[in-house]
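Give me the fold.
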Amino acid sequence: MSGTLLCILAFLSCLGFSITNWRYGVCVLMVWGYFFGILKAHYIQSLGHFIFDAATVGFYAGLIIKLPTREEQAKWKPVLPWVILLMVWPLFMALIPIQHYLVQLVGLRGNIFWIPMLLVGAILDRDGRYLLAITFAFLNIIAFGFCLAEYFLGVEMFVPENEVTQIVFNSNDIAGGHKRIPSIFVNAHTYAGTMVASIPWMITGFLEGKKRRLLRSLDNPLLVAGLLCSLLGVFMAGPRSPIVVLGLFACLTLLSGRVSFSLLFLFTLVGMIVAYFVSQNERMQRFTELQNLDYVSSRISTSLNMGFVDVLMEYPMGNGMGAGGTSLPFFAQVLLSNQVLMENEYARIVLEQGLPGLILFIAFVFWFFTRRISKSDPDSFGKSLFWILSTINFSTAWLGIGMMSSIPGTAMLMLGIGYCVAPQVLISGKRLFWKTNKLGVVSSGYIPAYQRGLARV
């Protein structure tokens, strides 16, 4: 099977499931995102780099062919202006021929391709979130199985050495000279980051499972197993920054005061299991290098230094779309001119979108930071989890690049943000009408038959 055929299969599968039910389409899209790394590594010569792109296009096409209901579209109101703004400016910058057209096109993909997932996250209902939670739990178990196999048999048994996997074979800084473990992802950092990003989904799924008595006995153990596999995978992969994000997320979640006793018991039990295995295995303790303050300060100064100001002064309108190293395929690297690389996501935005693009993105981040989650919202705890994790991701983005081009991490990030800022839905009566008030709450109520007739007129 060639990469071209896989692209066609990814497109058709996401298209078909999205037309049937967009919730199924999201889950199928995440499946392709999980397996994208290992598939791309084996099919580098025949469009293997664009398998997840094809799946995303198929999913979007399905949404356009069969639009969400009017009630669901009403929840787009808070986030739709930002989706338009965040996409229009990069589109304008892509028209300025600073870089080669192929570099510009791939760079545009990395800047706007998964922004519409904000809209999808805004309409995710309980059924959609529950399906995603089960999907992530199942995929995390599969990914952990590959992780164990690579741990005992070696990464070379599953990942071929070629142009797109050099980062995997160059990352051999685990105790004993072992390589970091990518599982089925592009690299170890993507694997660990995706595992962390999936945790809020599984926690909310666990809470939803309590309301589904028929499936509770089967699904809750699956979700707990998925959560355990994701945490172990973060430590077995080897990168340090996802462990920092995980630690901050755990601390802020516990300090939020919204954790129930059952969840606290679950966190404690799973945490003790993970702590035991980590303490017994030196290969899972690479994060302890963070105790070296000299190393940490050096790492921070590398990402956040005066070079950022120099880039801002030299390229106030950017160096061309894709010039910041937004997931360029190996065959497009040679086409990049005036290459400037910085391990800083905000510097990457300056290089590709210029100062206006950076200001626009920071404005979006500030808007997101200031969103309040109403305590009366029945999904307030789940939304707070996504708010905490997204806030940490935005706050630590200056320590590296890839936040807006990670597969499937970026799509998961946008889904979570969209769900977090979605207006609250209040239901009463047998018929529903939708109205957004000043607080961003979508209310509903009963409309008599004669009023419905007048409304149609």
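Residues 126-153 form the longest helix (28 residues).
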